[in-house]
């Protein structure tokens, strides 16, 4: 059934005249006209527009005939088949397939329905007849008409219901009963009484209710309803004060019962009692695209209740306010206009008797999702491979839109929220629907007719045996068993197919002409001409070019080309790239015309000419004097045949002394002045040259990026008798005039960027461009990954010029291993494998630049902001010494002022344990027996802790140096005594969970005995007695016994301190040390210790049971030394898994300034500086050239390789890697 508005006509015969408003009309009694669209005053936000309301059923009329047996009602349903715009009744009429009517009253035990029950609505536009027979005669009966859907049980359509009241006729007077929303209101009040619901009729019995209905004054009731429904608007008109469907009929019926059958009265100006109006609900509906964006188009929204108008959500908005929805179960209909009806969707909602709204969707969190809509298409037919644009809305601008032609998915080439550019896919035929799917929502469809044709050939020509691919459209080449026939009648062998292509071998016997493709059972299709053997030209790029310009020619059969011409002039630099491509340079003497390519098979001619513009290409000299000879090179015309004239600035015409097909040689005439030279071919347009300078020097070119003291060659004219050459005003004392056109000059001291000037007795010439003095190079970025040592290293910076040299560390590398790609980039293609890859230096004639190969800028991470220019986090740390970074990049600091700090990876402080007073616990004075007991972070004290370590579980271990203890901080914040041992200073935990520690007795620089110790069990704590035993004075000489707790094992040292030997010591236990501090462990489990007063890093090889000198850090003190042989004092150290030892240098060879730097010792023992200039301060910047440190004592690295430094004079410093290490999850 087509969309339409619905009119129902019921014709009745009656001789009884009913009061106005009941729905009956008699002679001389004005009745109610059929209901028209109601204008409802609705407040709407700026984002929406209100449509006029129109009810689902416009009106109905009836005629009744009576007999002794009862009344007979004849009904006719008329559907006028007309609608426009977004009107609910038009959308709902799609659902109305059947009608039913019935009569009810107080004296009928059950409703009496029409014959045939559900009557199908006629679809041919004619009346649909219904009939209700033999209705017992009576008064105040209600007739109802309802629309139903086409489901098996014919569900009623909400809002598609009208009613009217009639009384049985007593004579043959004809009356017409009209059904409107107004008549429905009267009938609804009457039905409330007929139902005899105790909530309405109270304690009245059935007989009393029937009597009340029988005596009800319908004239008064209708007068009351007119006041309520129309207010001050014309009665029977189209404008309501209260839509009739919003009247609470039960409440009004109860008011009549409470008044003993008397109809309530409203005086003029009285408001309608609030409880006479149903409790209505207000809602805001949210509508979005499938990808949760707002639509760029107007969206139409309406609720299916009888009284709600339609609204528009403006483009770019996503919500609509719909007020005063009457109680019931409804649907929100959302529609977006487009081709073939656009798209729409429905969402269920309900409003209960209290006006509470329940939505299944339509909120901000769960919006109604409309499918994408297609509004327009650039073409409705075309071939596969053609691009078309779909214009619409609701497309996903980020991609993910599936466009199907029938069942075949197309390629989406360009995407936006309102348009999709798609390529018609291959393998489809006939007329197919196009639809767009976005996030599971599919659009409306538009039909597309696919043309059957051969779209293109992969080559315009070829030879027998060549492979050729034909792109086809309108059929599936992979399943249609096509036949391919070449001109000359030879059938080709098909070697492959796809849905849209056929690949064949050009057969013997093929000739030039169209190729025919015939799908099995189909019609033959013709291709463009395919040329056999002889060259064919399809394109020129560019299509215009001056002499010397390179032109690329596309086509076929170019192999073996013996020549090419431009308008008959042979080209230069002809290169056959392949059989389908060649290039050439526009030759001297060429003029505009066709391009021809010749092979031994023939000549091919372009359909498009190559345009050679007429112009002066060059002058043999930029200047000169009268009488000089000048050669002018031209293009686009032939000077030998065009009889040109040559005029110099000043108007003097030159004498032509010679010409070729592309040049003119002239003598500079007397009277010529500086300016352009004009060449005019006979009958042609005057052409202008660049400026030709008379007499005064002119500088046309020179080499730039030259250092002071190096030579520059100036090219130009009129240099003879030059008296001065200057660089931006600085005179060059040394220069040589080679000839009138060149000068060789040495760049003078003090020269800067700027123009070069040459002075002769005739004047001064100034360069048009500035000379650029070569400056020292810079390195702004290094792209290098130490984990990929064979990968190229790319340096980015400035002032990289030919002749620049490179060093890795202090060693120059082979120039054959790198290239200077540009003035801003150098690539080291083959990094050296025998050098410590810590730093790179670039040198040119003006200076050098050095950069770390590993680390970026040094950053002030956490510290006192009042002492530096800037810092990431302002948090003052007291005398930081040892530093440890755990697996989650939490950072721990051991403070010499008796504290332990924890910071997260962002630098935010997590805790500070200790109050700056040395000891074990804050409460140890009042509770001495608990001195060594487990305590909390808040209660703990420390005594000069120097280093920290962490285990895999996240527990922290503190070398509590002057307390002669290892303290354990558990993950739940408990502080425990794990061991007592001689003044621990360096601490680290191996991959197998063993804690290694260096210690001295007494601690720090006065050590007489140094130890390397280990603790295997980190979970079992010693007894209080063991812990106290360390401090027992058991000797008569007053010296402490220093009994270590039993969980400590000495693996090296323990004898009187002494110097290290040059040869390895074995076993380990025999090694002697002289004041041990830092400790680190490599990936092989080797332990490295800082043997401070021996100025050595010692390596303890646990597998081979030996101790060796790994590196010496004391060279020729106090003689001046270098960063490769420094003299430094060590504190804490760390070793990375590869065996590189990191050593912060707080102090000092003052002559060389080795202090305040960070050093690295490679696995082979090579020492290099990785950060710090040697100046004592806290400056950020490039590690090797800008950054400074105050007093670095501790260093550790995060899992990703970021280096953290404990700078005792300030706080925590950080250096990120250029290439972060991969962090294991």
From TrEMBL:
It comes from the Bacteria. NHL repeats lie at residues 930-972. The keyword Transcription does not apply. Residues 1-19 form the signal peptide. SMART domains: IPT. The keyword Repressor does not apply. Residues 371-451, 534-617, 696-774 form the IPT/TIG domain. Keywords: Repeat, Signal. InterPro entries: 6-blade_b-propeller_TolB-like, Ig-like_fold, Ig_E-set, IPT_dom, NHL_repeat. CDD domains: IPT (cd00102). PANTHER family: NHL DOMAIN-CONTAINING PROTEIN, PTHR13833. This is IPT/TIG domain-containing protein. It comes from bacterium (Candidatus Blackallbacteria) CG17_big_fil_post_rev_8_21_14_2_50_48_46.
């Amino acid at each position: 059934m087509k969309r339409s508005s619905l009119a129902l006509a019921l014709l009745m015969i009656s001789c009884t005249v009913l009061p106005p408003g009941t729905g009956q009309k008699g002679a001389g009694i004005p009745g109610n006209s059929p209901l028209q669209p109601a204008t409802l005053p609705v407040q709407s936000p700026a984002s929406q527009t209100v449509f006029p309301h129109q009810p689902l059923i416009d009106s109905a009329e009836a005629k009744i005939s009576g007999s002794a047996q009862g009344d007979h009602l004849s009904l006719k349903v008329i559907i006028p088949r007309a609608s426009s715009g977004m009107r609910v009744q038009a959308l709902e009429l799609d659902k109305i397939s059947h009608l039913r009517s019935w009569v009810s009253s107080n004296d009928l035990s059950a409703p009496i329905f029409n014959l045939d029950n559900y009557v199908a609505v006629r679809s041919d536009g004619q009346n649909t007849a219904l009939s209700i027979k033999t209705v017992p005669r009576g008064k105040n009966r209600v007739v109802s008409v309802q629309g139903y859907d086409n489901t098996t049980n014919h569900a009623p359509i909400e809002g598609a219901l009208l009613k009217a009241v009639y009384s049985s006729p007593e004579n043959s007077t004809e009356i017409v009963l009209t059904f409107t929303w107004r008549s429905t209101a009267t009938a609804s009040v009457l039905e409330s009484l007929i139902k005899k619901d105790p909530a309405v009729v109270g304690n009245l019995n059935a007989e009393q209710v029937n009597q009340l209905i029988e005596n009800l004054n319908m004239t008064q009731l209708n007068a009351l309803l007119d006041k309520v429904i129309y207010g001050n608007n014309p009665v029977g008109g189209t404008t309501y004060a209260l839509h009739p469907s919003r009247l609470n009929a039960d409440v009004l019926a109860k008011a009549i019962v409470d008044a003993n059958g008397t109809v309530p009265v409203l005086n003029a100006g009285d408001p309608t009692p609030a409880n006479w109006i149903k409790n209505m609900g207000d809602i805001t509906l949210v509508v979005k695209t499938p990808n949760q964006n707002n639509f760029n188009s107007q969206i139409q929204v309406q609720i299916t209740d009888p009284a709600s108008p339609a609204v528009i959500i403006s483009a770019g908005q996503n919500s609509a306010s719909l007020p005063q929805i009457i109680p019931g179960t409804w649907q929100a209909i959302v529609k977006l206009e487009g081709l073939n009806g656009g798209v729409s969707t429905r969402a269920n909602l309900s409003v209960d008797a209290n006006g509470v709204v329940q939505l299944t969707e339509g909120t901000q969190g769960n919006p109604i999702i409309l499918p994408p809509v297609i509004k327009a298409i650039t073409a409705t037919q075309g071939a596969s491979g053609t691009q078309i644009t779909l214009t619409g809305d609701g497309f996903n601008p980020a991609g993910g839109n599936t466009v199907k032609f029938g069942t075949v998915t197309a390629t989406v080439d360009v995407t936006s929220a309102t348009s999709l550019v798609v390529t018609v896919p291959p393998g489809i035929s006939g007329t197919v629907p196009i639809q767009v799917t976005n996030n599971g929502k599919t659009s409306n469809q538009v039909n597309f007719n696919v043309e059957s044709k051969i779209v293109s050939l992969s080559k315009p020509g070829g030879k027998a045996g060549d492979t050729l691919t034909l792109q086809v459209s309108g059929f599936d080449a992979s399943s249609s068993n096509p036949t391919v026939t070449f001109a000359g009648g030879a059938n080709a062998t098909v070697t492959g197919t796809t849905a849209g292509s056929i690949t064949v071998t050009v057969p013997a016997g093929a000739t030039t002409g169209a190729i025919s493709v015939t799908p099995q059972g189909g019609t033959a299709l013709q291709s463009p001409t395919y040329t056999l053997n002889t060259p064919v030209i399809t394109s020129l790029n560019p299509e215009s070019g001056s002499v010397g310009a390179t032109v690329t020619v596309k086509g076929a059969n170019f192999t073996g080309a013996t020549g090419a011409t431009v308008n008959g002039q042979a080209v230069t630099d002809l290169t056959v790239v392949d059989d389908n491509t060649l290039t050439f340079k526009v030759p001297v003497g060429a003029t505009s015309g066709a391009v021809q390519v010749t092979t031994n098979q023939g000549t091919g001619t372009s359909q498009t000419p190559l345009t050679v513009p007429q112009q002066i290409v060059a002058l043999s000299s930029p200047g000169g004097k009268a009488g000089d000879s000048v050669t002018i090179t031209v293009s686009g015309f032939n000077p030998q045949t065009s009889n040109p004239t040559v005029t110099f600035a000043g108007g003097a015409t030159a004498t032509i002394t010679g010409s070729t097909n592309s040049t003119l040689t002239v003598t500079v005439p007397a009277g010529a002045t500086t300016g352009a030279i004009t060449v005019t071919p006979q009958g042609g347009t005057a052409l202008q040259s660049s400026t030709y300078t008379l007499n005064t020097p002119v500088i046309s070119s020179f080499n730039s990026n030259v250092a002071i003291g190096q030579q520059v060659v100036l090219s130009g004219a009129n240099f003879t008798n030059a008296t001065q050459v200057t660089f931006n005003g600085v005179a060059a004392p040394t220069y040589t005039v080679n000839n009138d056109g060149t000068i060789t000059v040495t760049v003078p001291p003090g020269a800067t960027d700027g123009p070069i000037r040459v002075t002769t007795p005739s004047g001064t010439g100034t360069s048009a461009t500035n000379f650029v003095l070569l400056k020292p190079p810079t390195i702004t970025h290094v792209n290098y990954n130490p984990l990929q040592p064979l990968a190229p290293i790319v340096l980015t910076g400035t002032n990289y010029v030919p002749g620049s040299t490179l060093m890795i560390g202090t060693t120059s590398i082979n120039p054959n291993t790198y290239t200077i790609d540009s003035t801003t980039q150098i690539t080291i293609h083959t990094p050296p494998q025998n050098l410590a890859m810590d730093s790179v230096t670039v040198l040119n004639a003006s200076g050098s630049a050095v950069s770390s190969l590993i680390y970026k800028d040094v950053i002030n991470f956490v510290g006192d902001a009042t002492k530096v220019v800037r810092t990431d986090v302002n948090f003052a740390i007291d005398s930081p010494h040892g530093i440890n970074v755990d697996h989650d990049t939490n950072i721990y600091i051991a403070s010499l002022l008796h504290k332990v700090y924890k910071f997260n990876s962002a630098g935010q402080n997590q805790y500070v344990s200790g109050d700056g007073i040395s000891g074990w616990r804050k409460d140890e004075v009042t509770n001495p027996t608990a001195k060594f007991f487990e305590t909390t972070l808040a209660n703990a004290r420390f005594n000069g802790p120097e280093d920290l370590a962490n285990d895999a579980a996240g527990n922290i271990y503190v070398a509590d140096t002057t307390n002669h203890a290892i303290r354990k901080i558990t993950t739940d914040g408990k502080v425990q005594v794990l061991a007592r041992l001689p003044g621990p200073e360096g601490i680290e935990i191996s991959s197998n969970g063993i804690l290694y520690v260096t210690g001295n007795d007494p601690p720090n620089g006065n050590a007489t005995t140094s130890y390397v110790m280990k603790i295997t069990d980190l979970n079992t704590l010693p007894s209080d007695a063991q812990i106290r035993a360390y401090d027992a004075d058991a000797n008569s000489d007053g010296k402490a016994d220093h009994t270590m707790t039993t969980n400590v094992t000495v693996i090296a040292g323990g004898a009187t301190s002494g110097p290290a030997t040059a040869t390895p010591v074995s076993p380990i236990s025999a090694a002697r040390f002289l004041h041990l501090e830092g400790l680190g462990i490599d990936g092989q489990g080797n332990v490295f210790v800082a043997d401070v007063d021996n100025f050595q890093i010692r390596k303890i090889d646990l597998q081979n049971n030996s101790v060796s000198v790994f590196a010496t850090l004391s060279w020729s003190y106090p003689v001046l030394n270098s960063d490769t042989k420094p003299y430094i004092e060590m504190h804490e150290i760390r070793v990375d898994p590869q065996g590189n030892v990191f050593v912060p240098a707080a102090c000092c060879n003052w002559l060389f300034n080795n202090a305040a730097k960070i050093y690295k010792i490679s696995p082979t023992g090579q020492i290099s500086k990785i950060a710090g200039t040697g100046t004592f301060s806290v400056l950020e910047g490039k590690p090797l050239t800008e950054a400074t440190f105050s007093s670095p004592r501790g260093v550790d690295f995060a899992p990703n390789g970021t280096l953290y430094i404990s700078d005792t004079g300030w706080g925590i410093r950080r250096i990120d890697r250029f290439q972060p290490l991969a962090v294991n999850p």
